[in-house]
Amino acid sequence: MNLTRAIAHIEALTAGRPVNESAASAFRQWMLTEASAEELKALAAAHEEMLMGATGELVYDREIAGNIFSKLQYLREEAAEDLIGQDNTPVVPLRSRLNYWWAAAATLLLILGAGTIWFLRTQKNTPAVAVQQPLQPGGNKALLTLANGQQIVLDNAATGQVATAGGVQVVKLDSGLIAYQGTSSIVESNLLSVPRGGQYRVTLPDGTKAWLNAASSLRYPTAFTGATRSVELSGEGYFEVAADAAHPFMVKAAGVNVEVLGTSFNIMAYADEAAIRTTVLSGAVKVQAATATVVTPGLQASLYPQQNTFKLTHPDLEEVIAWKEGKFRFGKTNIKNIMRQMARWYDMNVIYAGNVDEVQFEGILSRKAAAAQLLEAIAATGDVHFKIEGNNVTVFPGKGE
After folding, report:
1. Quick one: which of 122, 92, 90 has its CA closest to 109?
2. Residue 165 near residue 146 (C-beta atoms within 8 A)
3. Which CATH number fits domain 246-315: 2.60.40.10, 1.25.40.390, 2.40.30.20, 2.60.120.1440?
């Protein structure tokens, strides 16, 4: 077995093609005892690309997962102090300063998930997943409300022109994108609302591109005619702002004003989150509430309730915009934070039966998978388990029976 054959092996698994036990045994032997750090890293990258493009039911191979986990547990013990310090919370590291650990952990997490998950497409019957239809992943869903009160359900609308607003055409370009075409001096307000279990994109009249996450909305004019280009955001959005130094782009979100000239940034302003967070990927923005702060690339400005100043940190940028890329990416993330994200995407209700405040999880999971499969991935850590009843998910501490 070598890297080329290993990649071919996981390609077969991902495609649902049968593999014989001899090949599977050779792969396990290579993966656990022979593969170098660079080979593991290359395998991880190859499988992430396969996984994110896969369709159909997703399950995982417990034996492979268990074997990989055993290897990582051994590596963890050798590198524990360097990688996780004094934190006794059991997690599976996503990154570290040791290349070999990082590569092995990345392979585990991309093959895929919390400590022990190997996802693959399958033709097997999965009745336990089939009954969880209410918890299937979200999709491109949005409601467009025009100035005259007319509402257009965009997920049901055909591609092409869907409305005329303020003298310009509103055009649905694909299943998850609308744009404004034409020019007009008439200014009307439009509201794009994305429900729980949805996501959507819009190209604004000035060419700025906006992505909206689940349970979010964006109010904007059909033409930018003033000294500034102002929009109002609720929930979470990612913006790629069209450059126009003479007309700064302004985003208002839950009491925070963000001013930019031309940049890429993410704003999370959900009412049920601890803070309003503005993260800059390129360019620079000025955030303002009671005080103002300039945020440069790689920084995140967080404003907490009853505080007048922003806290600046260096977040994992990939984790911040993972939702836009079709992924959940967690780095030592508290289980309640994770469940809030899942609740918005899967439109589910979360109930806690016991104390799980100290439980953390680290991994990369596809937003294409059904909720039951992601929950099973998280439960594989043994730190929590779940009970699914319709749209209600109950979280229990510890390992289930």
Report:
1. 92
2. yes
3. 2.60.120.1440
| Whole-angstrom distance, CA of residue 342 vs CA of residue 324 | 14
- Residue 9 CB: number of other CB atoms within 10 A? 20
Domain 325-397 has CATH 3.55.50.30: yes
Closest CA to 291 of 267, 313, 305, 310: 310
What angle (nearest 5°) sits at the alpha carbon of residue 39, between those of residues 36 and 41?
Answer: 110
pLDDT at 269: 96
Please tell me the total number of residues recorded for the chain in this structure.
401
Residue 252 forms beta bridges with which residues? 232, 257
The model's pTM: 0.71
Residue 292 DSSP code:
E
Mean pLDDT by 10 residues, the chain (401 residues): 84 70 76 76 70 48 42 41 36 32 41 33 30 73 95 93 92 92 91 97 96 98 94 97 93 94 92 96 94 95 91 95 94 94 96 94 89 89 91 90 68
Specify the DSSP element, H or E, that contains 313: strand 311-313
**Amino acid 16: pLDDT:** 64
DSSP string, 170-219: EEEEETTEEEEES--S---EEEEEE-TTEEEEEE-TTS-EEEE-TTEEEE
The pair phi, psi for residue 267, each rounded to 5°, is -120, 125
What pLDDT is recorded for position 106?
41
Distance of alpha carbon 325 from alpha carbon 52, whole angstroms: 10
Q: Where are the domains of the chain?
A: 3-129, 139-225, 246-315, 325-397
Predicted pLDDT of residue 172: 95
